[in-house]
Sequence to fold (338 residues):
Amino acid sequence: MTTADSKPRVFSGIQPTSDSFHLGNYLGALRQWVALQETSDAFYCVVDQHAITVSHDPKVLHQRSRTSAAQLLALGVDPERSALFIQSQVPEHALLNWILGCETGFGEASRMTQFKDKSAKQERTTVGLFTYPVLQAADILLYQTDRVPVGEDQRQHLELSRDLAARFNNTYGRTFTVPEAYILKETATIKDLTEPEKKMSKSSSGPRGCLNLLDEPNQMRKKIKSAVTDSEAEVRYDAENKAGVSNLLVVYSALSGTAIDKLEDEYRGKGYGDFKSDLAELVAESLEPIARATREYLDDKAELDRLLTKGAEKARAVASRTLAKAYKKVGFYPPVAN
Ligand code: TYM
Fold:
Protein backbone atom coordinates (compact mmCIF):
# COMPACT_ATOMS: atom_id res chain seq x y z
CA MET A 1 0.00 0.00 0.00
CA THR A 2 1.16 3.48 -0.72
CA THR A 3 0.26 5.52 2.34
CA ALA A 4 -1.34 8.96 2.57
CA ASP A 5 1.98 10.74 2.20
CA SER A 6 2.77 8.26 -0.57
CA LYS A 7 5.62 6.46 1.09
CA PRO A 8 5.88 2.72 0.48
CA ARG A 9 5.10 0.51 3.46
CA VAL A 10 7.94 -1.61 4.84
CA PHE A 11 7.65 -4.47 7.34
CA SER A 12 10.23 -6.85 8.75
CA GLY A 13 10.78 -9.05 11.78
CA ILE A 14 13.53 -10.73 13.76
CA GLN A 15 13.39 -13.53 16.31
CA PRO A 16 14.54 -12.91 19.88
CA THR A 17 16.23 -16.29 20.08
CA SER A 18 19.70 -15.28 21.22
CA ASP A 19 21.34 -12.78 23.54
CA SER A 20 22.80 -10.88 20.61
CA PHE A 21 22.09 -10.42 16.92
CA HIS A 22 24.96 -11.45 14.65
CA LEU A 23 26.80 -9.98 11.70
CA GLY A 24 24.59 -11.91 9.24
CA ASN A 25 21.42 -10.36 10.71
CA TYR A 26 23.05 -6.96 10.60
CA LEU A 27 24.43 -6.93 7.07
CA GLY A 28 21.73 -9.15 5.56
CA ALA A 29 18.74 -7.32 6.98
CA LEU A 30 19.01 -4.82 9.84
CA ARG A 31 21.14 -2.24 8.04
CA GLN A 32 18.46 -2.14 5.35
CA TRP A 33 15.78 -1.69 8.03
CA VAL A 34 17.54 1.46 9.16
CA ALA A 35 18.21 2.77 5.65
CA LEU A 36 14.64 2.20 4.46
CA GLN A 37 13.22 4.40 7.23
CA GLU A 38 14.35 7.38 5.17
CA THR A 39 11.96 6.70 2.34
CA SER A 40 9.31 4.40 3.80
CA ASP A 41 6.62 4.04 6.38
CA ALA A 42 8.24 1.25 8.39
CA PHE A 43 6.99 -1.34 10.90
CA TYR A 44 9.64 -3.44 12.63
CA CYS A 45 8.76 -6.32 14.89
CA VAL A 46 10.51 -8.52 17.45
CA VAL A 47 8.70 -11.77 16.64
CA ASP A 48 8.48 -13.48 20.02
CA GLN A 49 5.56 -15.66 18.90
CA HIS A 50 7.85 -17.26 16.33
CA ALA A 51 10.40 -17.91 19.06
CA ILE A 52 8.16 -20.40 20.92
CA THR A 53 7.98 -22.73 17.90
CA VAL A 54 11.01 -24.46 19.46
CA SER A 55 11.52 -25.18 23.16
CA HIS A 56 12.26 -22.07 25.19
CA ASP A 57 12.65 -20.68 28.70
CA PRO A 58 9.96 -18.02 29.38
CA LYS A 59 12.23 -15.75 31.45
CA VAL A 60 15.00 -15.91 28.89
CA LEU A 61 12.57 -15.21 26.04
CA HIS A 62 11.17 -12.17 27.84
CA GLN A 63 14.65 -10.79 28.45
CA ARG A 64 15.77 -11.48 24.89
CA SER A 65 12.76 -9.64 23.46
CA ARG A 66 13.84 -6.61 25.46
CA THR A 67 17.52 -6.95 24.43
CA SER A 68 16.43 -7.36 20.82
CA ALA A 69 14.40 -4.16 20.91
CA ALA A 70 17.32 -2.33 22.56
CA GLN A 71 19.70 -3.55 19.85
CA LEU A 72 17.35 -2.38 17.10
CA LEU A 73 17.19 1.08 18.65
CA ALA A 74 20.98 1.05 19.07
CA LEU A 75 21.37 0.20 15.38
CA GLY A 76 19.34 3.23 14.46
CA VAL A 77 15.70 2.17 14.20
CA ASP A 78 14.04 5.48 14.97
CA PRO A 79 10.90 5.08 17.10
CA GLU A 80 9.70 8.54 16.07
CA ARG A 81 9.48 7.48 12.45
CA SER A 82 9.06 3.72 12.54
CA ALA A 83 6.79 1.53 14.65
CA LEU A 84 9.04 -0.77 16.68
CA PHE A 85 7.07 -3.37 18.62
CA ILE A 86 6.87 -6.83 20.14
CA GLN A 87 4.65 -9.23 18.19
CA SER A 88 2.77 -10.62 21.22
CA GLN A 89 1.52 -7.12 22.06
CA VAL A 90 -0.46 -7.05 18.81
CA PRO A 91 -2.93 -9.97 18.92
CA GLU A 92 -4.05 -9.46 15.30
CA HIS A 93 -0.98 -11.46 14.15
CA ALA A 94 -2.26 -14.68 15.70
CA LEU A 95 -5.82 -14.01 14.52
CA LEU A 96 -4.89 -13.50 10.87
CA ASN A 97 -2.60 -16.52 11.15
CA TRP A 98 -5.69 -18.70 11.61
CA ILE A 99 -7.42 -17.39 8.50
CA LEU A 100 -4.29 -17.72 6.37
CA GLY A 101 -3.64 -21.22 7.72
CA CYS A 102 -6.99 -22.21 6.27
CA GLU A 103 -5.85 -20.90 2.87
CA THR A 104 -2.53 -22.77 2.91
CA GLY A 105 -2.21 -26.19 1.31
CA PHE A 106 -0.64 -28.91 3.44
CA GLY A 107 1.72 -29.75 0.56
CA GLU A 108 2.59 -26.10 0.13
CA ALA A 109 3.57 -25.81 3.82
CA SER A 110 5.47 -29.10 3.62
CA ARG A 111 7.79 -27.67 0.96
CA MET A 112 9.29 -25.03 3.29
CA THR A 113 12.98 -25.87 3.54
CA GLN A 114 13.53 -24.01 6.82
CA PHE A 115 11.03 -26.32 8.49
CA LYS A 116 12.96 -29.33 7.25
CA ASP A 117 16.26 -27.87 8.53
CA LYS A 118 14.89 -26.73 11.88
CA SER A 119 12.80 -29.81 12.64
CA ALA A 120 15.83 -32.02 12.00
CA LYS A 121 17.53 -30.25 14.93
CA GLN A 122 14.63 -30.65 17.38
CA GLU A 123 13.90 -33.54 19.71
CA ARG A 124 10.22 -32.79 19.37
CA THR A 125 8.75 -31.01 16.35
CA THR A 126 5.61 -28.93 16.91
CA VAL A 127 2.68 -27.96 14.70
CA GLY A 128 3.70 -24.36 15.46
CA LEU A 129 7.08 -24.88 13.80
CA PHE A 130 5.34 -26.40 10.79
CA THR A 131 2.90 -23.49 10.36
CA TYR A 132 5.45 -20.80 11.23
CA PRO A 133 5.68 -19.45 7.65
CA VAL A 134 1.92 -18.81 7.74
CA LEU A 135 2.35 -16.65 10.86
CA GLN A 136 5.14 -14.86 9.00
CA ALA A 137 2.71 -14.19 6.12
CA ALA A 138 0.19 -12.81 8.64
CA ASP A 139 2.89 -10.52 10.07
CA ILE A 140 3.57 -9.08 6.65
CA LEU A 141 0.06 -8.92 5.18
CA LEU A 142 -1.48 -7.18 8.22
CA TYR A 143 0.48 -4.04 7.34
CA GLN A 144 -0.35 -3.89 3.61
CA THR A 145 3.38 -4.20 3.09
CA ASP A 146 5.11 -3.26 -0.16
CA ARG A 147 8.65 -4.34 0.75
CA VAL A 148 10.19 -6.76 3.21
CA PRO A 149 13.92 -6.31 3.89
CA VAL A 150 15.37 -9.76 4.69
CA GLY A 151 18.31 -12.04 3.96
CA GLU A 152 18.28 -14.75 1.30
CA ASP A 153 17.17 -17.48 3.74
CA GLN A 154 13.73 -15.84 3.95
CA ARG A 155 13.05 -15.79 0.19
CA GLN A 156 10.90 -18.93 0.20
CA HIS A 157 8.78 -17.63 3.09
CA LEU A 158 8.29 -14.39 1.19
CA GLU A 159 7.09 -16.34 -1.84
CA LEU A 160 4.50 -18.06 0.35
CA SER A 161 3.33 -14.67 1.68
CA ARG A 162 2.93 -13.43 -1.89
CA ASP A 163 1.04 -16.55 -2.95
CA LEU A 164 -1.31 -16.33 0.04
CA ALA A 165 -2.02 -12.64 -0.55
CA ALA A 166 -2.74 -13.21 -4.24
CA ARG A 167 -4.90 -16.28 -3.54
CA PHE A 168 -6.94 -14.54 -0.85
CA ASN A 169 -7.46 -11.50 -3.10
CA ASN A 170 -8.58 -13.78 -5.93
CA THR A 171 -11.07 -15.66 -3.79
CA TYR A 172 -12.51 -12.83 -1.70
CA GLY A 173 -11.69 -9.64 -3.60
CA ARG A 174 -8.78 -7.25 -3.03
CA THR A 175 -7.78 -7.33 0.63
CA PHE A 176 -3.98 -7.52 0.90
CA THR A 177 -1.06 -5.81 -0.82
CA VAL A 178 1.16 -8.43 -2.47
CA PRO A 179 4.56 -7.85 -0.81
CA GLU A 180 7.99 -7.96 -2.40
CA ALA A 181 11.17 -9.28 -0.84
CA TYR A 182 13.90 -6.65 -0.54
CA ILE A 183 17.15 -8.64 -0.56
CA LEU A 184 20.49 -6.94 -1.23
CA LYS A 185 22.48 -9.17 -3.55
CA GLU A 186 25.90 -8.38 -2.07
CA THR A 187 25.03 -9.25 1.54
CA ALA A 188 22.14 -11.68 0.99
CA THR A 189 23.99 -14.48 2.83
CA ILE A 190 26.85 -13.78 5.23
CA LYS A 191 28.78 -17.00 5.82
CA ASP A 192 29.99 -18.71 8.96
CA LEU A 193 33.57 -17.64 9.77
CA THR A 194 34.85 -21.16 10.41
CA GLU A 195 32.67 -23.11 7.96
CA PRO A 196 32.24 -20.63 5.09
CA GLU A 197 30.16 -23.02 3.03
CA LYS A 198 27.35 -22.55 5.62
CA LYS A 199 25.43 -19.35 6.43
CA MET A 200 26.25 -17.59 9.69
CA SER A 201 23.55 -18.57 12.13
CA LYS A 202 22.85 -18.26 15.84
CA SER A 203 21.80 -21.90 16.08
CA SER A 204 24.15 -23.83 13.84
CA SER A 205 27.39 -21.82 13.90
CA GLY A 206 30.02 -22.72 16.48
CA PRO A 207 31.25 -20.06 18.93
CA ARG A 208 33.99 -18.81 16.58
CA GLY A 209 31.88 -19.02 13.43
CA CYS A 210 29.27 -16.49 14.50
CA LEU A 211 30.24 -12.88 15.16
CA ASN A 212 27.79 -11.32 17.61
CA LEU A 213 27.07 -7.61 17.63
CA LEU A 214 27.39 -7.59 21.44
CA ASP A 215 30.71 -9.48 21.53
CA GLU A 216 33.59 -7.70 23.27
CA PRO A 217 35.73 -5.87 20.66
CA ASN A 218 38.70 -8.15 21.39
CA GLN A 219 36.55 -11.20 20.90
CA MET A 220 35.45 -9.79 17.53
CA ARG A 221 39.07 -9.22 16.51
CA LYS A 222 39.95 -12.79 17.47
CA LYS A 223 37.06 -14.24 15.51
CA ILE A 224 38.03 -12.35 12.35
CA LYS A 225 41.70 -13.25 12.73
CA SER A 226 40.91 -16.93 13.17
CA ALA A 227 38.40 -17.01 10.27
CA VAL A 228 39.01 -19.89 7.88
CA THR A 229 40.62 -18.86 4.58
CA ASP A 230 42.55 -21.17 2.20
CA SER A 231 46.05 -22.32 1.40
CA GLU A 232 46.71 -19.57 -1.15
CA ALA A 233 47.73 -16.10 -0.05
CA GLU A 234 45.77 -14.06 -2.54
CA VAL A 235 42.99 -11.70 -1.44
CA ARG A 236 40.61 -12.36 -4.32
CA TYR A 237 36.84 -12.79 -4.59
CA ASP A 238 35.89 -16.27 -5.79
CA ALA A 239 32.84 -17.47 -3.86
CA GLU A 240 33.12 -21.02 -5.13
CA ASN A 241 36.81 -21.76 -4.63
CA LYS A 242 37.71 -19.21 -1.95
CA ALA A 243 34.54 -19.08 0.16
CA GLY A 244 36.25 -17.87 3.37
CA VAL A 245 38.20 -14.98 1.83
CA SER A 246 35.23 -14.02 -0.34
CA ASN A 247 32.99 -13.80 2.73
CA LEU A 248 35.54 -11.58 4.49
CA LEU A 249 35.72 -9.36 1.40
CA VAL A 250 31.92 -9.03 1.42
CA VAL A 251 32.00 -7.99 5.09
CA TYR A 252 34.90 -5.58 4.52
CA SER A 253 33.20 -4.00 1.54
CA ALA A 254 29.83 -3.67 3.31
CA LEU A 255 31.33 -2.03 6.41
CA SER A 256 33.78 0.25 4.60
CA GLY A 257 31.74 1.15 1.53
CA THR A 258 34.77 0.26 -0.66
CA ALA A 259 34.03 -1.90 -3.71
CA ILE A 260 35.43 -5.46 -3.63
CA ASP A 261 37.65 -4.95 -6.69
CA LYS A 262 39.21 -1.89 -5.01
CA LEU A 263 39.94 -4.00 -1.91
CA GLU A 264 41.53 -6.69 -4.10
CA ASP A 265 43.82 -4.00 -5.60
CA GLU A 266 44.66 -2.63 -2.18
CA TYR A 267 45.73 -6.01 -0.78
CA ARG A 268 47.46 -7.34 -3.89
CA GLY A 269 50.72 -8.99 -2.82
CA LYS A 270 50.05 -8.41 0.89
CA GLY A 271 48.70 -11.79 2.03
CA TYR A 272 45.98 -12.60 4.52
CA GLY A 273 47.63 -11.31 7.73
CA ASP A 274 47.33 -7.59 6.91
CA PHE A 275 43.93 -8.05 5.38
CA LYS A 276 42.53 -9.80 8.44
CA SER A 277 44.13 -7.33 10.90
CA ASP A 278 42.62 -4.36 9.07
CA LEU A 279 39.24 -6.07 8.86
CA ALA A 280 39.37 -7.01 12.55
CA GLU A 281 39.89 -3.31 13.42
CA LEU A 282 37.13 -2.20 11.08
CA VAL A 283 34.65 -4.71 12.52
CA ALA A 284 35.48 -3.87 16.14
CA GLU A 285 35.31 -0.12 15.46
CA SER A 286 32.05 -0.33 13.51
CA LEU A 287 30.21 -2.57 15.95
CA GLU A 288 31.48 -1.44 19.35
CA PRO A 289 29.18 1.64 19.50
CA ILE A 290 26.17 -0.65 19.00
CA ALA A 291 26.93 -2.58 22.19
CA ARG A 292 27.37 0.63 24.14
CA ALA A 293 24.09 2.12 22.90
CA THR A 294 22.27 -1.18 23.58
CA ARG A 295 23.39 -1.06 27.22
CA GLU A 296 22.09 2.50 27.52
CA TYR A 297 18.66 1.53 26.18
CA LEU A 298 18.55 -1.46 28.52
CA ASP A 299 19.43 0.71 31.52
CA ASP A 300 16.22 2.73 31.18
CA LYS A 301 13.57 0.02 31.37
CA ALA A 302 10.63 2.42 31.74
CA GLU A 303 11.62 4.38 28.64
CA LEU A 304 12.14 1.22 26.58
CA ASP A 305 8.72 -0.08 27.64
CA ARG A 306 7.17 3.26 26.77
CA LEU A 307 8.67 3.19 23.27
CA LEU A 308 7.51 -0.39 22.70
CA THR A 309 3.97 0.38 23.88
CA LYS A 310 3.86 3.36 21.53
CA GLY A 311 5.10 1.15 18.68
CA ALA A 312 2.51 -1.54 19.42
CA GLU A 313 -0.30 1.03 19.49
CA LYS A 314 0.76 2.38 16.11
CA ALA A 315 1.00 -1.17 14.74
CA ARG A 316 -2.41 -2.18 16.13
CA ALA A 317 -4.11 0.77 14.50
CA VAL A 318 -3.07 -0.56 11.08
CA ALA A 319 -3.28 -4.28 11.87
CA SER A 320 -6.82 -4.08 13.28
CA ARG A 321 -8.09 -2.35 10.12
CA THR A 322 -6.67 -5.10 7.91
CA LEU A 323 -7.96 -7.86 10.18
CA ALA A 324 -11.47 -6.33 10.19
CA LYS A 325 -11.43 -6.39 6.38
CA ALA A 326 -10.30 -10.03 6.30
CA TYR A 327 -12.91 -11.04 8.92
CA LYS A 328 -15.68 -9.48 6.84
CA LYS A 329 -14.43 -11.08 3.62
CA VAL A 330 -14.46 -14.61 5.04
CA GLY A 331 -17.88 -14.15 6.66
CA PHE A 332 -16.86 -13.85 10.34
CA TYR A 333 -18.59 -11.74 12.94
CA PRO A 334 -16.51 -8.80 14.13
CA PRO A 335 -14.83 -9.17 17.55
CA VAL A 336 -16.84 -7.56 20.36
CA ALA A 337 -15.22 -4.87 22.51
CA ASN A 338 -13.96 -5.90 25.98
P1 TYM B 1 15.75 -14.45 11.76
O1 TYM B 1 15.36 -13.95 13.11
O2 TYM B 1 16.35 -15.81 11.66
O3 TYM B 1 16.76 -13.45 11.07
C1 TYM B 1 16.53 -12.04 11.03
C2 TYM B 1 17.01 -11.48 9.70
O4 TYM B 1 18.40 -11.75 9.50
C3 TYM B 1 18.60 -12.35 8.23
N1 TYM B 1 19.76 -13.25 8.31
C4 TYM B 1 20.80 -13.23 7.46
N2 TYM B 1 21.08 -12.47 6.40
C5 TYM B 1 22.25 -12.69 5.75
N3 TYM B 1 23.15 -13.64 6.14
C6 TYM B 1 22.91 -14.43 7.20
N4 TYM B 1 23.80 -15.34 7.58
C7 TYM B 1 21.69 -14.25 7.92
N5 TYM B 1 21.14 -14.86 9.00
C8 TYM B 1 19.95 -14.24 9.22
C9 TYM B 1 17.31 -13.11 7.95
O5 TYM B 1 17.14 -13.36 6.58
C10 TYM B 1 16.28 -12.15 8.50
O6 TYM B 1 15.96 -11.16 7.56
N6 TYM B 1 11.32 -15.82 9.84
C11 TYM B 1 12.19 -14.70 10.14
C12 TYM B 1 11.57 -13.70 11.10
C13 TYM B 1 10.25 -13.14 10.65
C14 TYM B 1 10.04 -12.21 9.60
C15 TYM B 1 8.63 -11.96 9.60
C16 TYM B 1 10.87 -11.60 8.67
C17 TYM B 1 9.05 -13.43 11.21
N7 TYM B 1 8.07 -12.71 10.58
C18 TYM B 1 8.07 -11.12 8.66
C19 TYM B 1 10.30 -10.73 7.77
C20 TYM B 1 8.92 -10.50 7.76
C21 TYM B 1 13.45 -15.22 10.82
O7 TYM B 1 13.45 -16.27 11.42
O8 TYM B 1 14.51 -14.36 10.77
Remarks:
- The beta strands are 9-14, 41-46, 83-86, 147-149, 180-182.
- The longest strand covers residues 9-14.
- Residues 85 and 312 are 5 Å apart (CA to CA).
- The mean pLDDT is 95.
